[in-house]
Task: inverse folding
């Protein structure tokens, strides 16, 4: 069963990922991304990260991808990108080689790390033992406990996001529009 | 035995610090004065350089002839974190270079006017003076490097700002080439101090402490020595690292050339004595064949290249390459005569080649060309000028009775004992020196003057006085070098003693009655 | 008096300084007069020193006067000092004596030259330098004079420097001499290394006491000989001397005949003990070079047409004789010949100068002839000089030349034969010269006609008394000079006795050899040879019997000079230019090449910096993969 | 199930006082700027400057306090309290304080008077401060993102200038890309050690027996962390963004990026490598070695052929980063690399802000007159400005009697102490190549004549900053003792020294 | 042993994450639309998240999940800022792709 779930979710994630890379229309790419996000969410659940799975679906798929689609529509850039041509010589070859190399290297690292830590796949997960909301509680305790400082920093991060958009979106003062182009 | 300074009446006056700081103050003053009052600017520059020169001459008179150690020592803590101190001192090796620096600068300030931006020019010149003084006086490796390197900046601007057509190229080449060498030396200096820490007991860049207390493993010492040697060889410049010199000399303004030939190149040769031989005697002896060979090649090569130059200034520049080869030869021969000769040659080359550049500058002033082919028959229209040129030239050729001979001969006769065949080959340099200088003289001064040259102005009173000072020094030193030699020699002997103590090397000493000629010197 | 020897060079030095400072104000002829007086005063002092030495016993005939310590460094102590001994005083005597005469002569000769005072400036400086050379207490003071005379020779040869050939000749003389100077310097290095001193006394003692190994002594002697070859114009360095005739004639007489060119012989004599200590073949080398030079130059002189060139080659030839003497151990003969040669060669040069002066600077003998009629004094004195050099008894040259041949015979008969042939040629070409200049038809009218209107002005005329007086004095000396050393008995060997303290132990002992026993035979042979040479020449040039043998090859000096010039100007120059080009292209090229390489590298790297964000990302990815690979290797292996 | 034991961590506010000061300033700027714009209009610079001074002063006091207290951590080990962090924070404060006046003049030229750019600078400073004191990889990541996001926005903030926009986008895409690698690195390190806390990681690595098999994960994690921070410090080959972004971004922003941004990233790198990963020094040292070499050379070489001064300075900053990496390499040997790197950064901060301030002045109102030809004849038009720039450039070239020499000397000294002779020599040779670029600028200023006699206007505040920078450069060049003494007192909180699990 | 009995271990998830991450990397290299490039970054972040969760489970430590939470916050902020930049550029030049923005170079 677990294997079945894994395989299905992994397939979703991979198909979605390949879709992002290969669909020429950005809208399609965004929708493929949603597929991946769902797949990953399933894998989260499979590994007992229920809270994260929920956040993944709500925030990522629900908000972020929507934002992407919104921007695509706003800018009207939903024209298909011509993927037949590659202006940069040997960029694709390089990308393919590098991608393969990275997969190879990372996989090799994972596979050679044969200690109990990595192999402990079916091991006990305290997060799911006791109660349905155990995961949530643990996450909460972690966030507001030892990681409270990090949590506080996120506030600054969000301020940056908000103010940053203001800076970027503010109307350019009229008149001296000299520097562009 | 570090001398705590000779007894002198104004013992509290920091003579050496003043030698460095007075020009700095002068430069600042010049920089701050208004450009609208050029006479004040010139006066301020002159005052500070004359003051410096005066102090240096006073120091010369107060110098204790029999003391071989450092005199007028001034030592203050500076950067304690790195064991760096403001440690200045003068001994027989640096004495005359300091005096030469002190005398040369006022002379060029008086004698040579820049064509534009006099204020800036004078300020840079004074900075240069401070840098050169500092280099000769430093007894701290860090301090030496500081001055050694800082000299590049004013020289760069002097060449670049007041030089001739390819000045930027020449200035940049000069700057980068020298800096390239220094890159190695900086690492070497630091490594020296760090590695000496074990023997000295604490981190210090003090030259005397390191030299007297620290001993380096043979291979370490060699690497360290080589790192110094690269920088110094570039500065000298030693073949084959010499090609920045002709460019720099040719493009530099007259004052720049005079200073460059007069004192700046000596930083390299002086460095070999003060830092190469003193700090790493074993390595210096190990590297002796290499440096002797390069020196000898430089002597011949520089002379041959000089012969074929078409630009008078370039010719003199190449002659410097040859002359400095003699100095290096003497340095690595490590005998009393050779080393004394090297030091004397540093000073004498400074005087005679400096004067040559001055004269070539005067030719350029009048004719706006340095091309030998453009000049002809000047002796017919300006005999006094030609005579002055002749005297200076003969000094450069090394005719006895003039100062150029003293150093050259001592170097050769001293080197012969420890570097026989090199010396025999090097001595052929005296033939070539006559060849290239006389040939150039013939082309420039002899013959019937053509239209362009028939209006050549005779030497003016100011120029005459200026050149006269040089000629006076040339004659005095050539005929009566004893006062100079007897001040140089004790320090040189002390250095040799140091080398002997460290390496087991035995310098040939008073070879009366000894016969070294048993290894087949027969044929010719 | 001998302790006042420093006054000897001091007078000319004072003269030099005075002319330097006031020369222009003094003008003509005062500057010349003063210079002459200074040299004459010097001569007077020299005579005083001579008399002082003469009054002493042989062992005490030397006096060192140290003025100050010149180059004291470590074991090297070089003093500025003078050594008055028979040899140096002999030299000083004829240097100042002949020098004074030539100064006087020059007042007349240089009349009207715009640089009149400057000429005497150089002349005084030369005399000063020459005196430093001969009076020097050590090799280095000699070297100071040595270089000083070289420089003065350079100034004087290129005195008329606006003339290209004069300028070139001066430079050639200096540079060629420098080749010899190199040898002398190396000799000094060796001497210092071996004996620890440069003073003659120390060096000669060391050699005498056997403290210098034979091999070293050989090195020193041969290196000194290299120096001597340069200064005394021996093979292969003689080439500068004929060209040196570009200088005014008094210069040729003083420097290039009487004094400077003999300094090589002087030096070898001065250091005779060193040569004595050397391997025997060293002396043979010297003798051979001398003999060959003598013959070689004599053959060239046969075909010269320039009145001074003949004398120049003759000088080279006679100097060769002196070195033959040195190499044969005949130091007395060498000095003897040096002195007599100074007399008659100065006389000949001055005579030729008088001719040139009278001929308005015509030097080609083919345009002379029959001058004895218009220039009787000159002609008479010149003939005396001719007889002296040709080896006609009882003129001075006969005695000195014969003395040399005697020793040469004792030493090496082949060299003797060369010497005899040279003597024959000498008589031949000198006779030829005398005939061409003073006898036969007056060919100078052609020239006067060429110049048309000025005919009268170009009539040859006798020179003024300032010029003829020296001629007469020198002629007298050329006649009686042989009396210095007459072979009749031991007691007439005046010069030998005088020089005894200097050359003691170095002079070859020929007593008991066949040559010594049969010296009258050899003397007779010499007379015959001289007579034969004269007769042959008279036959050809005076009587017109037989065609003159003047092959172009000899006229061109065996093309040796041309060959040297061709090598120097051709391959030599190419090599020099090659080195200069290598310096610019290779050595400097490497430097600039490094700069260009950095730029080129930057250009290549720049292509990666193409502005495309995806390329940058690719670069990052490459870096990532590289790092991952490195760490994976570290982790797994 | 029982109630989960939750003990809220103790929060000692003084440990994060700089953050609080800047946060307070941020709020004040935003609120007042939005609500009552008249109050602060034109005074944002003053407020920002004051906050920087306040932080600097507070940190100075803390510096002396730390003299008696042992170093440690705060906020559940998330923040390290040590002199290293204090010094780095002070440098950031200095950077902010120096850039503020320049930014003021720059914005005045752009007629931009809102509080937003100031807010972005403050958040950037906060992000940087978080990075230098972060003792937890997650905190480090968040600080990095805070800094980066602020800088992305600032880089793109000159919206009249297409180059600024391009710079913003490039920086953003590449920054996001490298953040992902960095994050992956965190994940792998976490996977190998079970913690993201530097202290914990270090202690786990000390007892490395249990981790024997996880070497590959750990090492790849280290590699990816190096990629992320290498990108930030613009180490070759992760440097490609630097010239484009530095050139395109508004000059004061570039100044801040090159100073505070680098300080933060290097501080983080140093802390990470020498505390948490100290045990693995043998693994990462060669990488740092190679990065240092590449960075010095590529930066110097590429600078040689540039024609835009900003771009030249960008490449020179790459080269300088290489020098600091030399110090980092030395720090791996326990040599005084730590202090020399930090001293270098402090000195470089002043130098680079001074230099870019000059560029800001010369660049003119449109902020794009930055090509080399725009500097032609500056010495005749504005001699003082040219002289000041010359001093700064010479210092960057490492001329003695300037601070730049002290910086280089220190780094080379530590490299030599670590016996990294080859690296030391190579770095010095690289510096020679780099010197060419400074010479080129000087040639333009001094030795070439201007096409027109237009003298750039030097705003007062910017002029003051340049003057301060020059004065500091010369002062430190001659009297570096105090700075070096301070540098030698720098220490890092190390788990070995702290008895902590 | 049936297929169903095979429980995927952490390695499986990690390898999957690695593949996802690499796909994201490749995507960024080959796509020219900045929006899609940005999506690829999101892919990479997701891959990292997956790794974190897997490690968290393997270690039995909640820290990994907390990390994912923070990453999501960061991703959100990044998206806001990134899209802001993209919008500000593409508002004027709708056809712009990443390759067109290459004025700054050399």
Result:
């Amino acid at each position: 069963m677990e294997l079945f779930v894994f395989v299905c979710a992994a397939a979703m994630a991979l198909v979605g990922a390949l879709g992002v890379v290969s669909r020429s229309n950005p809208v399609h790419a965004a929708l493929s991304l949603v597929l991946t996000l769902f797949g990953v969410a399933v894998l989260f659940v499979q590994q007992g990260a229920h809270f994260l799975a929920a956040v993944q679906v709500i925030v990522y798929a629900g908000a972020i991808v929507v934002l992407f689609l919104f921007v695509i529509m706003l800018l009207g850039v939903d024209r298909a990108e011509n993927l037949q041509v590659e202006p940069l010589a040997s960029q694709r070859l390089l990308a393919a080689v590098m991608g393969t190399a990275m997969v190879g290297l990372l996989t090799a690292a994972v596979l050679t790390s044969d200690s109990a830590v990595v192999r402990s796949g079916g091991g006990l997960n305290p997060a799911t033992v006791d109660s349905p909301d155990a995961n949530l509680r643990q996450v909460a305790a972690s966030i507001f406990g030892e990681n409270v400082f990090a949590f506080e920093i996120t506030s600054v991060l969000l301020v940056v996001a908000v103010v940053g958009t203001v800076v970027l979106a503010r109307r350019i003062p009229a008149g001296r529009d000299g520097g562009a182009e | 035995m570090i001398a705590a300074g000779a007894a002198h009446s104004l013992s509290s006056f920091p003579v050496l610090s003043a030698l460095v700081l007075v020009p700095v103050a002068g430069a600042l003053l010049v920089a701050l004065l208004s450009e609208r009052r050029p006479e004040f600017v010139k006066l301020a520059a002159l005052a500070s350089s004359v003051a410096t020169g005066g102090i240096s001459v006073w120091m010369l008179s107060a110098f204790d002839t029999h003391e071989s150690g450092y005199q007028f020592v001034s030592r203050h803590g500076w950067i304690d974190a790195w064991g760096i101190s403001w440690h200045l001192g003068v001994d027989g090796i640096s004495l005359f270079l300091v005096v030469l620096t002190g005398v040369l600068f006022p002379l060029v300030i008086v004698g040579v006017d820049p064509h534009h931006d006099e204020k800036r020019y004078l300020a840079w010149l004074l900075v240069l003076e401070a840098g050169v003084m500092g280099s000769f006086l430093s007894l701290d490796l860090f301090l030496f490097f500081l001055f050694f390197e800082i000299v590049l900046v004013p020289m760069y601007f002097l060449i670049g700002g007041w030089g001739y057509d390819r000045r930027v190229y020449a200035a940049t080449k000069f700057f980068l080439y020298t800096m390239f060498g220094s890159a190695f030396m900086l690492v070497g200096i630091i490594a020296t101090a760090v590695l000496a820490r074990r023997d000295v007991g604490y981190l210090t860049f003090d030259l005397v402490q390191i030299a007297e207390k620290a001993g380096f493993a043979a291979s370490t010492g060699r690497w360290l020595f080589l790192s110094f040697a690269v920088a110094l060889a570039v500065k000298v410049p030693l073949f084959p690292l010499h090609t920045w010199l002709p460019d720099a000399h040719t493009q530099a303004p007259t004052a720049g050339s005079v200073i460059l030939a007069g004192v700046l190149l000596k930083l390299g040769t002086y460095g070999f004595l003060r830092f190469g031989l003193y700090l790493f005697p074993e390595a210096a002896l190990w590297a002796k064949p290499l440096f002797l060979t390069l020196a000898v090649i430089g002597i011949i090569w520089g002379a041959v290249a000089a012969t074929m130059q078409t630009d008078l200034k370039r010719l003199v520049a190449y002659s410097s390459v040859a002359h400095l080869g003699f100095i290096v030869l003497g340095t690595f021969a490590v005998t009393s005569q050779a080393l004394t000769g090297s030091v004397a040659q540093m000073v004498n080359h400074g005087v005679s080649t400096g004067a040559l550049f001055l004269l070539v500058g005067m030719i350029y002033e009048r004719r706006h060309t340095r091309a030998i082919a453009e000049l002809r028959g000047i002796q017919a229209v300006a005999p006094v000028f030609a005579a002055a040129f002749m005297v200076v030239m003969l000094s450069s050729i090394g005719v006895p009775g003039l100062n150029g001979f003293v150093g050259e001969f001592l170097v050769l006769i001293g080197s012969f004992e420890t570097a026989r065949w090199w010396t025999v080959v090097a001595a052929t340099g005296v033939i070539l020196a006559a060849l290239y200088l006389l040939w150039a003289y013939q082309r420039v001064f002899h013959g019937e003057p053509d239209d362009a040259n028939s209006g050549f102005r005779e030497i003016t009173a100011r120029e005459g006085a200026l050149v006269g000072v040089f000629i006076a020094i040339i004659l005095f030193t050539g005929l009566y070098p004893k006062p100079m030699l007897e001040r140089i020699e004790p320090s040189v002997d002390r250095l040799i003693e140091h080398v002997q103590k460290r390496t087991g090397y035995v310098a040939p000493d008073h070879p009366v009655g000894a016969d070294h000629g048993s290894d087949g010197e027969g044929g010719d | 008096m001998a302790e006042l020897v420093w006054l000897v060079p001091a007078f000319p030095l004072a003269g030099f300084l005075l002319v330097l400072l006031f020369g222009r104000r003094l003008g003509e002829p005062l500057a010349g007069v003063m210079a002459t007086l200074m040299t004459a005063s010097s001569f007077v002092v020299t005579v005083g020193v001579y008399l002082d030495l003469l009054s002493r016993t042989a062992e005490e005939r030397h006096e060192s006067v140290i003025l100050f310590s010149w180059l004291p460094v470590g074991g090297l102590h070089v003093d500025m000092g003078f050594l008055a001994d028979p040899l140096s005083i002999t030299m000083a005597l004829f240097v100042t004596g002949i020098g004074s005469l030539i100064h006087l002569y020059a007042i007349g000769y240089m009349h009207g030259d715009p640089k009149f005072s400057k000429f005497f400036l150089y002349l005084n400086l030369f005399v000063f330098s020459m005196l430093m050379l001969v009076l020097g207490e050590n090799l280095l003071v000699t070297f100071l004079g040595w270089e000083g005379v070289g420089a003065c020779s350079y100034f004087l040869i290129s005195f008329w420097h606006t003339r290209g050939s004069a300028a070139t000749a001066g430079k050639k003389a200096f540079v060629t001499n420098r080749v010899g100077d190199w040898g002398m310097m190396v000799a000094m290095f060796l001497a210092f290394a071996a004996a620890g001193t440069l003073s003659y006394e120390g060096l000669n003692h060391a050699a005498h006491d056997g403290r210098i190994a034979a091999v070293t002594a050989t090195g020193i002697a041969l290196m000194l000989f290299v120096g001597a070859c340069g200064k005394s114009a021996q093979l292969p360095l003689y080439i500068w001397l004929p060209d040196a005739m570009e200088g005014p004639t008094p210069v040729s007489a003083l420097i290039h005949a009487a004094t400077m060119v003999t300094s090589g012989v002087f030096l070898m004599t001065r250091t005779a003990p060193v040569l004595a200590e050397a391997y025997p073949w060293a002396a043979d080398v010297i003798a051979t070079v001398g003999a060959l030079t003598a013959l070689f130059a004599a053959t060239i002189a046969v075909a010269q047409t320039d009145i001074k060139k003949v004398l120049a080659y003759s000088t080279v030839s006679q100097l060769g004789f002196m070195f033959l003497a040195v190499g044969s151990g005949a130091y007395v003969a060498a000095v003897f010949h040096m002195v007599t040669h100074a007399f008659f060669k100065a006389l000949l040069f001055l005579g030729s100068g008088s001719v040139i002066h009278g001929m308005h600077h015509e030097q080609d003998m083919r345009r002379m002839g029959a001058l004895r009629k218009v220039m009787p004094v000159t002609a008479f004195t010149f003939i005396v000089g001719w007889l002296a050099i040709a080896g006609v008894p009882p003129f001075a040259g006969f005695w000195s030349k014969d003395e040399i041949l005697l020793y040469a015979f004792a030493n090496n008969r082949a060299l003797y034969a060369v010497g005899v042939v040279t003597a024959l040629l000498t008589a031949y070409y000198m006779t030829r010269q005398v005939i061409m200049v003073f006898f036969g038809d007056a060919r100078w009218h052609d020239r006067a006609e060429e110049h048309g209107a000025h005919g009268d002005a170009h009539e040859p005329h006798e020179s003024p008394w300032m010029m003829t007086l020296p001629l007469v004095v020198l002629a007298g000396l050329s006649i009686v000079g042989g009396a210095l050393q007459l072979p009749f008995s031991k007691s007439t060997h005046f010069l030998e006795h005088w020089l005894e303290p200097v050359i003691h132990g170095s002079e070859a002992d020929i007593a008991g050899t066949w040559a010594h026993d049969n010296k009258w035979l050899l003397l007779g042979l010499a007379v015959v040879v001289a007579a034969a040479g004269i007769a042959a020449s008279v036959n050809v040039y005076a009587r017109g019997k037989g065609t003159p043998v003047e092959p172009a090859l000899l006229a061109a000096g065996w093309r040796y000079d041309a060959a040297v010039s061709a090598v120097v100007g051709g391959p030599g120059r190419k090599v020099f230019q090659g080195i200069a080009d290598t310096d610019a292209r290779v050595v400097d090229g490497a430097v600039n090449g490094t700069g260009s390489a950095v730029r080129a590298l930057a250009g290549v790297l720049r292509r990666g910096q193409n502005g495309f964000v995806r390329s940058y990302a690719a670069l990052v990815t490459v870096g990532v993969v590289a790092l991952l690979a490195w760490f994976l290797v570290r982790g797994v292996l | 199930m029982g109630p989960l034991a939750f003990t809220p961590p103790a929060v000692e506010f003084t440990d994060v006082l700089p953050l609080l000061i800047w946060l307070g300033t941020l709020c004040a700027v935003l609120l007042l700027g939005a609500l009552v714009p008249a109050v602060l209009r034109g005074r944002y610079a003053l407020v920002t400057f004051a906050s920087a001074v306040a932080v600097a002063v507070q940190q100075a006091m803390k510096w002396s306090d730390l003299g008696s207290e042992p170093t440690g951590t705060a906020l559940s080990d998330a923040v390290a309290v040590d002199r290293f962090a204090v010094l780095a924070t002070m440098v950031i404060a200095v950077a902010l304080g120096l850039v503020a006046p320049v930014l003021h003049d720059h914005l005045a030229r752009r007629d931009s008077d809102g509080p937003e750019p100031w807010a972005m600078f403050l958040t950037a400073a906060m992000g940087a401060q978080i990075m230098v004191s972060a003792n937890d990889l997650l905190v480090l990541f968040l600080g990095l993102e805070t800094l980066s996001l602020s800088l992305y926005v600032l880089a793109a903030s000159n919206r009249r200038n297409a180059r600024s926009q391009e710079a913003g986008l490039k920086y953003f895409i590449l920054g996001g890309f490298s953040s992902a690698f960095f994050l992956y690195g965190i994940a792998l390190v976490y996977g190998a050690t079970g913690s993201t806390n530097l202290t914990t990681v270090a202690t786990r690595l000390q007892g490395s027996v249990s981790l024997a098999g996880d070497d590959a994960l750990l090492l790849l994690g280290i590699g990816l962390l190096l990629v992320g921070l290498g990108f930030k410090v613009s180490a070759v080959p992760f440097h490609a963004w630097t010239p484009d972004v530095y050139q395109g971004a508004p000059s004061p922003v570039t100044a801040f990026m090159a100073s505070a941004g680098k300080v933060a990233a290097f501080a983080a790198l140093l802390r990470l490598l020498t505390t948490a990963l100290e045990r693995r020094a043998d693994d990462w040292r060669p990488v740092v070695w190679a990065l240092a070499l590449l960075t010095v050379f590529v930066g110097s070489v590429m600078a040689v052929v540039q024609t835009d001064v900003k771009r030249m300075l960008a490449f020179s900053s790459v080269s300088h980063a290489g020098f600091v990496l030399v110090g980092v390499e030395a720090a791996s040997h326990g040599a005084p690399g730590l202090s020399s790197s930090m001293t270098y950064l402090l000195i470089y901060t002043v130098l680079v802000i001074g230099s870019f301030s000059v560029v800001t002045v010369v660049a003119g109102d449109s902020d794009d007159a930055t090509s080399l030809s725009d500097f032609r004849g500056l010495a005749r038009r504005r001699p003082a400005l040219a002289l000041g720039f010359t001093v700064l450039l010479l210092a960057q070239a490492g001329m003695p009697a300037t601070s730049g020499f002290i910086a280089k000397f220190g780094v080379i000294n530590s490299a030599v102490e670590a016996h990294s002779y080859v690296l030391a020599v190579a770095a010095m040779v690289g510096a020679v190549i780099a010197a060419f670029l400074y010479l080129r600028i000087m040639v333009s200023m001094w030795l070439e004549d201007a096409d027109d006699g237009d003298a750039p206007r030097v705003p007062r505040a910017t002029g003051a900053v340049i003057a301060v920078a020059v004065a500091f450069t010369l002062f430190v060049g001659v009297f570096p003792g105090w700075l070096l003494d301070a540098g030698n007192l720098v220490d890092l909180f190390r788990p070995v020294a702290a008895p902590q699990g | 042993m049936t297929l169903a009995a095979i429980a995927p271990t952490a390695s499986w998830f990690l390898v999957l994450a690695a593949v996802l991450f690499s796909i994201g990397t490749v995507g960024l290299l080959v796509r020219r639309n900045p929006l899609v490039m940005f999506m690829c970054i999101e892919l990479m972040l997701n891959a990292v998240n997956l790794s974190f969760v897997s490690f968290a489970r393997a270690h039995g430590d909640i820290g990994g999940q907390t990390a994912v939470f923070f990453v999501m916050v960061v991703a959100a902020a990044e998206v806001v800022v990134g899209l802001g930049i993209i919008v500000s550029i593409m508002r004027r030049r709708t056809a712009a792709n990443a390759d067109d923005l290459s004025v700054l170079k050399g």
About this structure: The longest strand of chain B covers residues 71-79. Chains B and E do not touch (no CB pair under 8 Å). Chain B has 24 helices and two strands. The radius of gyration of chain B is 22 Å.
